[in-house]
Amino acid sequence: MLKDATMPIFSPDRHAHVPSYVKLTKQPIAGGTYRPLANDEDSNACAPSALSGHHSSKLYTQKSAIHAISDNTSIFISGAGTLPCLPEMASSGSVSKAEIDNNEQIASSELQPHQPAEQPLNQVISVCKRAAHTTAKTLSTAGHTAVKATKVTGHAIHVAVTAVKTAWHTFTNFKAVQLIIKFFRKAYGPWKKRMRFSYAFYAIVFTLLTSAEVIFLQWGVYSEPEYVEDSEVDYTTQILQSVAGQTTRFVSQMWLEQKYQFLLNFIGIGLIYLALVFVLNRFWIATVIFGAAMTAYGVANSIKMGLRNEPILPSDLSFVSNGNGGSLLSFIPKDQQALVNGAITVLIWFSCACLLLFVLDGRRRFIHCSWKHPSSNAKNIIGTSSRALAAILSIVLLVSYTWNLNIPGAWSYTLATNLGYKPVPWNTYEDAKSNGPATTFQSLVRVKAMDKPNEYSKKTMEKIAARYTKEANKINTSRANILTDSTVILILSESFSDPLRVPGISFDIDPMPNIRALKDVTTSGLMLSPGYGGGTANIEYQSLTGMNLANFNDQLISPYQQLVPSQKNVYTFNQIWNDACQAQCSYAFHPYLKNFYLRDSNYKKFGFKYFRTIDSKPALKYQDHIDAGYVSDASAYQNVIDQLNQSDGESQFIQLVTMQNHLPYGDYYTNNEFKEADTSTGLDENEEVQIDTYAKGISYTDQATATFLDQLNMIEQPITVIFYGDHLPGIYASAAKYKENQLTLHESDYFIWSNSSSSSAGSKLSPEESDYSSSNFFMASAAEHMDAKVTPFLALLTEVHQSVPAAGRFASTDADWGTGSTSYLDSSGQLIKKKNLSSEAKQLLEDYRLIQYDQTAGKGYLSENWFNRVP
After folding, report:
1. C-alpha angle with apex 185: 181 to 191, nearest 5 degrees?
2. Is the pTM of this model over 0.70?
3. Which residues share a beta bridge with 728?
4. What is the CA radius of gyration of the chain?
5. Long-range CB pairs of 67-74, under 8 A, 24+ apart, other chains included
6. Are 654 and 589 in contact (CB under 8 A)?
7. At what angle do helices 839-856 and 458-476 cross, to 10 degrees?
8. pLDDT of residue 113
9. By the 8 A CB rule, do 218 and 294 touch?
10. pLDDT tens profile 358-370
């Protein structure tokens, strides 16, 4: 029933398809009556149009009939009789569309004859509603399509799953399969209740595996002794000096000599094993990982010891971390391939055994824990807490032990020394043999570059800067040229040296006639190298920076990996050219991988404009090989020639590190005349093959270098070349056995040469100034060769070089020669004692040490002035 005080009356729009409603004048209730719509009385007296003002057009446009209940529905009729009832609606409950449209038109014309201004608004509303209706219809269609596609996909999946289930049921219904299923069902109960291995068994496995890995690592640092033919060495001595004998002695000295290096190495790698067990909480999985990692480390360590007389160092891990692990495999010599294959076989069987034990062991977790329900009961609370605490403590213990192993006074250093640890960091080969490779590795994880000198201060450094600025001015008054007016090419020739200088090596053919002749007419000599068989980046660091490794702490083995990455600013000589051209006019080339020794990132710090390698973008243009060797020196030189041709006569600094003569030295040259020309005696077959191959490579380098210098002579701009071999190859096993050959095996060849367009063409420094040198003195010697003005730092290097022609930290354990890690040579190449140096030389060395500390580990006071620039 409608019981409102007034009755709102609405009129539909003139356009039937877009209904519009206008509120009309309210009608009073007084005087009206209610009549049921369901009553058939007076049905013919009512027209459908009479209700058009009371019902929405939306109501009348429903497709289905509208049914009314007569005994519950009525309509109000005013007393004036202006709203007659609707007979057809009251009786049938429905109205035709034609009648509705007719009534709407009548109502619109009669009730709203004076509102034509609202038509534009109604039309806008009509357009919006049509757009909304179209969008809704589109979305509805898309939704229906998506739903249909989903249903189809679901049906397909259901059919597939049903097919799989049917096939599975068919398979499992076979009698043979049913027998197997019944067997496993019966066996599951006993299998679930299988024995858990005891912690005592775990402890036995832990002890045996760790001991085996320590012995294997130590075995890898030894080599079989070689005896002179017809020498009288008794059988017992031969056994004791063999690899097996030396390894046995390393273990047994715990009882025979009270030296516990074996136990020290056991603790070192045992902490790693323990951390893996507690972190993974799976004993057998940790065992597989530990065994595989330690065995791989032992194999790599053995190979490196044989090739370079050096164990694996923490800095070597940068090769792997920079994605070069695969390329390291190319360095494995053929005679070591059997060791690699054997290790792989052992690891496969070892892994299978651990997998079997893992399956048989009913104890899945080493320490019970429940991460899903850690606090559900007391057992879970205690177990989970213990598991987390054990993992944290094991890691902390391992890190603390390793971090403090080379710090005197620290707990792990004290423990190690009590067990017989005597560090020999300046000679990692001897350190690994006496202390064990694991201890050597861990002792070098944390390295401090230099200890702060007591006299180091800003005031002290200002005095030094003033002293050598004055010395530079004094030198420059007698020199006519500017260093940066010439292009300087610094060439590190990989492993280049004269094999004929090695005792016991001889050929009927000279492998380096061109360079030998050149050394007679230009500045040249021998360079004291801190490396033998390796250490390229260290010698390279010295030549680029003017720093000497002898000034660093003995634990700092590789500045490129242990020092430079942590430095914000690194001074290198190429920056002199960058300052002169007020841009980056220095370039670097290396025909191998860019990330070896972290060169790519380090060279950016050095200020090189770009660094081109075989894997850079863009890569080196010329990458030709000679037979199966590395990129040839001829190709490396051609890349430099292209860079010079692109310079438009601008002076520049070019750094080139070659690769042709890098180890290994397999028999890969097809036409090697040095096999027939080898007249050496006392060499075994493997040593002879390597030396013959190396000699052929030196011959190729000699020819390529002569051609390269001829090309430079044709360029009409002053160019000076600094050429040097970084170290001797580690192939002279026979000569290395004798201590008297130690110095010879650390001397490589160098020369400084200027082309015909240089004013210094044909210059040659006196033998006292050039016969012996170190790579850190090369730039100072080049400036003197070029008659070029120097910076205060170069003035210092010039003065030090005159007082101490060569200094280097190499494998010398004789404390009589200086500090036990640094060797000094006089102008004739003789070792000199530090205590016999002049007071002037000692002062120069002290100033040198202070300057190196300031620029590498100190506050960089000298970088605030013109110490590294020409006054």
Report:
1. 125
2. no
3. 532
4. 46
5. 67/93, 68/37, 68/38, 68/93, 69/38, 70/36, 70/37, 70/38, 70/39, 71/36, 71/38, 73/36, 73/37, 73/38, 74/1, 74/34, 74/35, 74/36, 74/37
6. yes
7. 120
8. 45
9. no
10. 988 888 788 887 7
